Amino acid sequence: MIELTNISKSFGRHQVLHEITYTFESGKVYGIVGENGAGKTTLFRCIAGLETASGSIKSDLAPLKNNLGYLTSDPYFLSKLTGEEYIYLLTDARGKQIKNLSERNIFELPLKEYASDYSTGMKKKLALTATLLQDNNYYILDEPFNGIDLQSSIILTEIILRLKA
């Protein structure tokens, strides 16, 4: 369970989040929709601990940041890392050891190639793979379907539905 209580966030005089209170229950999938600039990404960044906000964010698993996988809407890639090295970098940083990566390559990416040479859709799938392989209790996926093909969208939907179980 992740509980938000009176979450507010402003950038200068512009208030992006205003006293948001909500409880996300374990074992459920939530979709947050809104217009561009409505504050969805800011809310996600606050929950992930990447932005400060007033109010409180509590979880049944403390600390939340150690149990949360966060896929940003625009992942960053180091130019001289292969897809495989990128996955290991992110999972190692979270203290997660990945075995049999070739068997867990859910989107069949060319992991020996430089991630910077991947197409936009391949980069998104690489970031999704690295996030999902962290084996967290909670996931925030910011625009996970943007830039990926139909078949990959179907695979991702199936994975998300399995994760909630």
Measured by DSSP, the beta-strand proportion falls in 15-25%
Q: What is the name of the CATH architecture of the largest domain?
A: 3-Layer(aba) Sandwich
Strand count: 5
Number of helices: 4
For the record, what CATH class of the largest domain applies?
A: Alpha Beta
Explain this structure.
- The chain contains four helices and five strands; from the N terminus they run ββαββααβα.
- A hairpin with a 2-residue loop joins strand 1 and strand 2.
- It is of the alpha+beta class and 165 residues long.
- Helix 2 runs parallel beside helix 3.
- The two termini are 14 Å apart.
- It folds into two domains: 1-60, P-loop containing nucleotide triphosphate hydrolases (Rossmann fold, 3-Layer(aba) Sandwich), CATH 3.40.50; 65-165, Rossmann fold, CATH 3.40.50.
- It is globular, with a radius of gyration of 16 Å.
- It has a three-stranded antiparallel β-sheet, covered by helices on one side.
